[in-house]
Write a structure and sequence with these properties.
The protein has twelve helices and 13 strands. The strands form three sheets. Strands 8, 9, 10, 11, 12 and 13 form a six-stranded mixed β-sheet that branches. Strands 5-4-3-6-7 form a five-stranded parallel β-sheet, with helices on one face. Helix 5 packs antiparallel against helix 6 (151-172). Helix content is 39%, strand content 17%. It is of the alpha/beta class and 300 residues long.
Length: 300
């Protein structure tokens, strides 16, 4: 009987060790993180990460999300909603997550890592930095798929996405005159756009156009004069916090001299799909391609 109980104890200990295997990984910001598999309880602190998790068919693993993720179709009902910059540590601790999938922008508001305490308590936190290109988005999807042991679904999602992108690029080869584009993400008086090393700049290239601020680094705060002098053929805006962003652009002082305004080539692009680096950027790319070259691209 003593031998039998010893055998049972050894079996239980062995099963326990296998139930939670530790694994050291490097996250998307280059940090070394120790995680424990399997991962069944996940906190997502950025909508792009939440979209990837949902698109991988792993939404049932979510136990909390950031407030900006609340409008994403496919998330479980009544999940706790966390502040993007100041997530409630007590709420997260009580949820007993296996993993927090965070954004490189979560520390931006405070300048400090809002998950430092949780990391020190032993809760693994991986960070997904802001993608600099569409290729980075592929890697983000693959990384999260591997974390959640959904590699096959991740591979299928990336393959499908690449097929759509390659089709758009192939069509762009027929463009004879490359149009210049100003893509606005914040309206006057605090105008903002993206330059090089951003996935929005890569999206503009993908549809066969040229970003007028492609020579500037990442996030750009241009003056009205700079936009006027670069005279874009097309203006795109994803601003959704004012009533009529297109009219606001057209009526800015001096913008009546810009070709995009003269030729009525100012268009609104879906906000969420153009700022969240997930597979859903494809919707924004379809909108952009049609707006810039409607003779070549149908609106999908």
């Amino acid at each position: 009987m003593r031998f039998l109980w010893s055998l049972i104890l050894i079996t239980l200990l062995f099963s326990s060790c296998n139930a939670a295997k530790t694994n050291e990984i490097i996250d998307r910001t280059g940090r070394n993180i120790v995680i424990r598999n399997p991962i069944n309880r996940v906190v997502s602190t950025a909508p792009s990460n939440t979209e990837i998790i949902v698109d991988l068919g792993q939404a049932e693993k979510l136990v909390a999300i950031d407030k900006h993720s609340a409008n994403i179709e496919g998330i479980p009902d009544k999940l706790p909603l966390l502040d993007f910059f100041y997530p409630d540590a007590e709420v997260i601790i009580n949820l007993k997550p296996d993993l927090i999938i965070a954004s490189g922008h979560n520390p931006t508001g405070s300048g400090e890592d809002p998950f430092k305490l949780l990391r020190e308590m032993g809760i693994p936190v991986v960070y997904i930095s802001m993608s600099k290109s569409i290729e980075d988005i592929y890697k983000d999807i693959e990384f999260i798929a591997k974390l959640l042991q959904a590699e096959e679904k991740g591979e299928k999602l990336v393959t499908w996405m690449k097929q759509q992108i390659n089709s758009i690029i192939k069509t762009a080869e027929d463009i004879e005159i490359v149009k210049t584009v100003y893509f606005e993400i914040s309206a006057a008086p605090d105008m903002m756009t993206f330059g090089k090393d951003s996935f929005i700049d890569d999206m503009i290239k993908t549809v066969g156009a040229k970003n007028i601020f492609a020579n500037e680094n990442w996030l750009v705060s241009p003056s009205a004069e700079a936009v006027i002098n670069r005279n874009p053929d097309v203006i795109l805006t994803n601003v959704n916090y004012i009533d009529d962003p297109i009219s606001e652009i057209k009526n800015r002082l001096g913008f009546n001299h810009i070709n995009a305004v003269i030729n009525d080539r100012v268009y609104q692009i879906d906000t969420d799909s153009s700022v969240r680096p997930s597979a859903r950027v494809l919707y924004a790319i379809y909108q952009m391609s049609h707006a810039i070259n409607p003779e070549l691209y149908e609106l999908q």
